[in-house]
Every structure is written in C-alpha cells, then in structure tokens.
Amino acid sequence: MRRAGLFGVPRVRPWSWQAFLLGFGVVTASAAIQGICVALGAKLYFAAFLPSLFVLGIVAGAPAAAFAALLTVPLVWWAFIPPFFEFMPLTSANADSINFFCLLAVLLIGLADLCRETMAIISRGGLKPSGESAATNSQ
C-alpha cells in the first residue's frame, strides 16, 4: 500500500490480491449497512453499495471495483429483494433496478478510475510540457 502524495489517500495496486480482498470487505460492510437500511424500511436495494464502489475504485482501482459490483448483484438479489434469502424469478421492476445499478456502477467505476489517474498525475508533479506541440507553427 502506498500513499498518493497530494491527497493522502491510501492506494492499493489494482490487480493485487489485497485489492480484491478489500473489494470483498467493502461489499460485506455495505451489505451490513444495507441490511440496517432494509430493517428500517428502505426499499432502495443498492443504496449502500454505490458510494462504496466509487471509493473502492479510487483506493483499489477499477478491477477490484468491478469485482465488487459483480459480487453485489447476486448478493442483493438473494438477500435484499423479497422473498428474502431465496433466488426467485425477478419481476420487471427488480430487473430494471439491477440494470440501473449496473449502468451506474460502470459510470462510477469509470469516474473513480479517472480520479485515481488524475491523483497519480498530480502527485508526480503534473503534466510536463513536451517541447513543441503540433499546434505551433515553426515557420
């Protein structure tokens, strides 16, 4: 684990086993938070998972966040969509919520990857001019 110089966010190498273990831990913690929300009456099945995917994408990279998103779908289907703790055929509304989660997960993971790369560029000192650009005319 290393620290990004500018923001102090701990970072994990994207394809390491630590990144995937962190992804599993984030899904577990999000499931616990989602369980509390469901016990309080919330019907937003993926509410606790979306912010954690974004943070996981920044800290551990896109592969770990994609792993967590793929792990989230069957977990939510099994544990949080009624009837609880059973795999039953999905209703149209439940299938739509899973599709919407997948769309948001792809967008958030992409945004997190861009943020991660931007932090890496800034911690290296920013972009360096490469001499003459193609836009300048040397005549």
Could you give a short description of this structure?
The chain has 139 residues and is mainly α. It has helices at 17-39, 49-60, 62-79, 92-123, and strands spanning 2-3, 10-11. Helices cover 61% and strands 3% of the residues.
Q: How would you describe what is shown here?
A:
It is a single chain. With 139 residues, this protein is mostly helical. The chain has one domain (2-123). It is built from 4 helices and 2 strands. A two-stranded antiparallel ribbon has the order 1-2. A hairpin with a 6-residue loop joins strand 1 and strand 2. Helix 1 (17-39) packs antiparallel against helix 2 (49-60), helix 1 runs parallel beside helix 3 and helix 2 (49-60) runs antiparallel to helix 3. The termini are far apart. The mean pLDDT is 88. Keywords: Membrane, Transmembrane, Transmembrane helix. The chain crosses the membrane at residues 20-41, 53-78, 98-115. It comes from Bradyrhizobium arachidis. This is DUF4118 domain-containing protein.
The proportion of residues in beta strands is: under 5%
SSE order, as H and E?
A: EEHHHH
DSSP E strands, number: 2
- Helix count, DSSP H or I runs of 4 or more residues: 4
**Sheet of most strands:** 2 strands, antiparallel
| Residue windows where pLDDT falls under 50 for at least 5 positions | none
| Oligomeric form | single chain
Give the helix level as a range of percent: 55-70%
| Integer average pLDDT | 88
Shape: elongated
Which strands sit side by side, in order, in the main sheet? Answer: 1-2
The structural class is: mainly alpha
Number of domains: 1
Radius of gyration: 19 Å
Gap from first CA to last CA? 50 Å
Protein name: DUF4118 domain-containing protein
Keywords: Membrane, Transmembrane, Transmembrane helix
